[in-house]
Amino acid sequence: MTTLRNFSRFITDTLRMVTTGGPVYYLWVGFLLLLIAFGANAYIGQLHNGLLVTNMRDQVSWGFYIGNFTFLVGVAAAAIMLVIPAYIYDWEPIKEITILGEMLAISALVMCLGFVMVDIGRPDRFWHIMPLVGRLNWPQSMLAWDVLVLNAYLVLNYFVVTYLLYCAYTERHYVKKLVTPLVLLSIPMAVSIHTCTAYLYNGLASRPFWNSAILAPRFLASAFCSGPAILLILLQILRKTTKLSIKDEAIFKIAELMAYTMGFNLFLTAAESFKELYSGTEHMVYFQYLLFGLKGHNTLVPYAWASIIFGAIAFILFLVPKTRTNWVTLNIGCVLIYASVYIEKGMGLIIPGLTPDALGEIYVYTPSVTEISVAAGIFALGFLVFTLMLKAAVPMMLGEFTISRGKKGAQPAKSEGHA
Amino acid sequence: MMDQDACRPTPGAPCPSGENNGRREFLGAAVAAVATALTGCGKLSKEEFLQHNFRELSKEEVLTVIERLEKEYKEKFGKDVKVANTPALPGVMFGYALDLSRCIGCRRCVHACVKENNQSRDPEIQWIRVLEMEKEEGVDLQHAEQYYNPAEVPREGHFYMPVQCQQCKKPPCVKVCPVGATWKEKDGIVVVDYNWCIGCRYCMAACPYGARHFNWGEPNLPSKDVNTDTHYLGNRPRAKGVVEKCTFCVQRTRKGLYTACVEVCPTGSRKFGNLLDKESEIRYVLENKRVFKFKEDLNTQPNFFYFYGV
């Protein structure tokens, strides 16, 4: 009974916490809300006119939405990048920030589900894909698997974050026997969401660009570069704007781990390119379209090379201890690797997979204004979810915002924005 | 022989219809209301929203659904559209063979198909795509052209290869569909339940033949062009946001008729029949001509064959 009362206090206090803040906070949240409204407006237009307002067509039947979805699954999976060293090696400095990784995963998953929802032609039939209620084609369809693992991963992360914060709020220590197995479970779960998403493309023999055995390893390797890159920047911001203490040591450790995954990612990309270009079969056309252009169509070429070059520079910056421990070069590296993976696992994956199409036609796809607007709205939604979670979580983690303080009128401990 | 135009999809064209849908004046369930908002057109009935997968419906439920559909089509087109649900005939496995040495690339099949199967006219959805190939290259998709438009066909140095659904024995599209909205019927026809498809387009990515087409906007089918002889799993008018494909004219072939493309072909390049019937023309072709399957390396095992008749 007390638990129930405490939990409802936890909810109401959290709500009060996220709705009060300083001007910077309000400005940031207002900006995100505005972007969401802008995206929603574009989406209403899309609902009304159909996906005709996108530039996707029968030839390139997936585009910007699914590209973003794929990239964000990687971001969500990368939360384990922090969990693995923290729990396997019991490395304290990282342990306290795994909760941030998990919140990042939740926000990324919200965006993933958003991108899938806006991509389907009949969102009114979403219940058809729900297990038990609808008719999930499991275990045949990889998309059915993906629906299951993504939602399970979302629930798992959501539960762990809520539980840990609730414990901090009620000034109790969390039950280790409950949390440790769940966090350990989240490691294979994170691998599985990205593997499933890779298999979704990988299993299509009709698309040689995707039908490669190292697609899933490539997905994981690149996710372990981009996810931590976001976190590294975030940790620095949080250190500056809140009282949360994150040691340099923790950040540099993550950077070092990233150097290995980046090297591995580049190696896998090289392995794939070698196989395609050296053997030079008909299947090379998709790589050609991506890297050199085909029959005069070279929309993707500058992006593809930017991705490769950014990735290589970032790798060097993270590999050399001197540049890895220098804040300027470290942050440049983070931005570069993020951009590199965003191109590679977004449009750089989807578009050449579908161009030339199954009958050899080249349809040059670039996202329409509607697609970009809707995507902006979804990104804003993800940022909003993350901002609100951080707003409540940071003071709870610091012990500044607890049930006993809440009773005294829930004075928000810290009210700066943190964007 | 005059050539007829292939339709190239036009990006960014606005939705032509979508206003004239104040037909449904009330909605019962709140869920249906939310779902209606999600369709963006506000013409979703509670019955339609709650309708289950076709294969799970009882005989009575199928009849109710068909009655509702016929009523909706009547309101929409002002015509009595008959929606049949004729099941697969026992002892029948449909097969198709196309003679590459006879086809002249006139695209009459393309347009007869559109007329028969109630596809959207603008933008026009075409279930048959005719590829113009260079004789020197043979069947090579990297040298194929779909938008050929000479004054006369066949063009010097070229041959033509029409591609449509190959009705695979191992259809990748069926395997990947997350909701089981598409399946293979007993007579070998791969069909779609347009009322169950969620429009994720995974099947389109999986199909090696480009045979699946999506209703990117509200299908634009003028009342005067509606073919009123339809089948639930075949040519009944479709809605926005769902996938469609060639069904070997299920509404015709299950009545013993030829498909529209077979009937219209001026050169007799198209052969159709029951693979289980030893006397059928399709069996004659398989036994007396040398056939090949398109992209046989993918092991989709089509029931659609190509051959060189002369």
Explain what you see.
The complex is a heterodimer of chains A (419) and B (310). Chain A starts with a helix and ends in a 12-residue tail after the last helix. Chain A is globular. Helix content of chain A is 72%, strand content 0%. Chain A has helices spanning 2-19, 23-49, 64-77, 79-88, 92-95, 98-119, 142-169, 176-202, 215-241, 248-279, 284-291, 301-319, 321-324, 327-345, 347-354, 369-397, 403-407. Chain A is mostly helical. Chain B folds into two domains: 18-50; 94-308, 2-Layer Sandwich (Alpha-Beta Plaits), CATH 3.30.70.20. Classes of the chains: A mainly alpha (419), B alpha+beta (310). The interface between A and B is large, with 56 and 63 residues.
Structural class of chain B: alpha+beta
Radius of gyration of chain B: 20 Å
Q: Sketch the major β-sheet of chain A.
A: none
Main interface: chain pair and counts: A-B, 56 and 63 residues
Task: Tell me which CATH architecture of the largest domain in chain B applies here.
Answer: 2-Layer Sandwich
Mean residue pLDDT of chain A: 91
- Helix and strand succession of chain B? HHHEEHEEHEEHEEEHHEHEE
Provide the CATH top-level class of the largest domain in chain B. Alpha Beta
Strand residue content of chain B? 5-15%
Spatial order of strands in the largest sheet of chain B: 10-2-12-11
What is the CATH first-level class name of chain A?
Mainly Alpha
The end-to-end span of chain A amounts to: 38 Å
- Helix coverage percent of residues of chain A? over 70%
CATH second-level architecture of chain A: Up-down Bundle
